[in-house]
Design a protein that fits this description.
The protein is an all-alpha fold and about 130 residues long. The protein has five helices and no strands. α3 runs antiparallel to α4. The N and C termini lie far apart (about 50 Å).
Length: about 130
């Protein structure tokens, strides 16, 4: 039996959803921050964080967050000269979308996929 009155339940679900999204946002940001710091070993740590964020997003069926994590991971893989891995990571998630192709996240993912598919890799930043 659920505690509280039935009128409280939707708010509880909304709060739970907000907390889950905050955790995903934190995971994605943590990976990006690791890359900005650039000490030795951060690319491996950032890759682990992005893969964890992908797993969490999949478990929560949060497709937009899955796309963000996959895009960040694909950029990292591109910078490591692993374009095939980047495409394998990002393409299946991008292909699951049926609308919203003008949003910033989908535009960025499409640009990255086009870059990877056409072999126009940007030079990785020093030490990445």
């Amino acid at each position: 039996m659920r505690g509280g009155s039935p009128t409280d339940w939707p708010q509880s679900r909304e709060a739970s959803t907000s907390l889950k999204e905050a955790g995903l946002r934190q995971s994605c940001c943590e990976g990006e921050l690791l890359l900005l710091q650039r000490p030795t070993g951060t690319t491996e740590a950032a890759e682990d964080v992005f893969r964890q964020a992908l797993d969490i997003a999949r478990q929560q069926e949060a497709l937009s967050w899955e796309l963000r994590a996959a895009t960040s991971l694909a950029r990292l893989l591109r910078n490591q000269r692993r374009p095939a891995d980047a495409i394998v990571c990002l393409r299946p998630i991008y292909d699951r979308f049926t609308e919203g192709f003008g949003t910033a996240d989908l535009v960025a993912a499409k640009q990255l996929l086009n870059e990877l598919s056409h072999g126009r890799q940007q030079r990785p930043a020093p030490d990445s």
